[in-house]
Amino acid sequence: MGTGNQYARIGDAAPAFKAVTTQGDINFPADYKDSWVILFSHPADFTPVCTSEFMTFATMEEKFNKANCKLVGLSIDGLYSHIAWLRTIKEKIEYKGMKNVEVNFPLIEDITMEVAKKYGMIQPNEDSTKAVRAVFFIDPKGIIRTIIYYPLSLGRNFDELYRVIIALQAADEFGVATPADWYPGDDVIIGPAGSCGSAKDRMEDGDIDCKDWFFCTKKLDKDTVMDRVLKK
Ligand code: BEZ
């Protein structure tokens, strides 16, 4: 972790931990070498917003897995509560056309708050005993690449989480940045010109669209992005 900050931050190595989960013990992030991981927290089992989120995430899990991304959840609850809640979701809850939903990704028990504290998932002015809705995007080298926090009352947008995992991989694979509201198929941003000569060249390059010397985009079609991300 970076110096002088109690929380894990973007660019830090993901703090390591061992934990008990609904899918057995895990050694994090070592067990996830070569994959992207979304490590996310939720406030509590048997709560409605969290239930809607778990049903949505579980329904989308295969889509994330195809983008080389595994899911790992956490809350300040024990293993038996987790198991009972996930069984209830599968057996009893029908929501927005989703039913019989099985949560196959691991859900960490964190009664001691050890993991939640390492990751800054407890934000005491929101709640001192429940984790906020934190989302950590961790790359295959174990580096935290994006962090998003939501308060207890606000359910996450899982299409946005998918957009982030694709955009991060597109940036790595093609050496580009992604502009506001980018989706695969939209133009991407190329890095700033390093010299006056290259600034002039790129203004005149037909494949590059420069609004000004510092703001240049180029086409990157959707299939090219998705083929690269989904094949890894
Ligand atoms: C919920 O998931 O519904 C929830 C959890 C904690 C506080 C408020 C809502």
DSSP helix fraction:
25-40%
Q: Structural class per helix/strand content?
A: alpha+beta
Give the number of helices: 6
Number of strands: 12
**Low-confidence segments, ≥5 residues, pLDDT <50?**
1-5
Strand order in the largest sheet: 7-4-3-8-9
What is the N-to-C order of secondary-structure elements (H for helix, E for strand)? EEEHEHEEEHEEHEHEEH
> What oligomeric arrangement do these chains adopt?
single chain
Main sheet: strands, sense, barrel: 5 strands, mixed
Bound molecules: benzoic acid
Overall pLDDT level: 94
What is the rounded distance between the termini? 28 Å
Radius of gyration: 20 Å
- Percentage of β-strand residues: 15-25%
State the shape. Answer: elongated
Description:
- By secondary structure, the protein is α+β, with helices and mostly antiparallel strands.
- Strand 11 and strand 12 form a beta hairpin.
- The strands form four sheets. The protein has a five-stranded mixed sheet with strand order 7-4-3-8-9, with helices on one face. Strands 10-12-11 form a three-stranded antiparallel sheet, with helices on one face. A two-stranded antiparallel ribbon has the order 1-2.
- It has helices spanning 48-66, 79-92, 114-118, 158-174, 196-204, 222-231; strands at residues 17-21, 24-28, 36-41, 69-75, 94-95, 98-99, 107-109, 133-138, 144-150, 188-189, 208-212, 215-218.
- Helix 4 (158-174) packs across helix 6.
- The radius of gyration is 20 Å and the shape is elongated.
- Mean pLDDT is 94; it is low at 1-5.
- It binds benzoic acid.
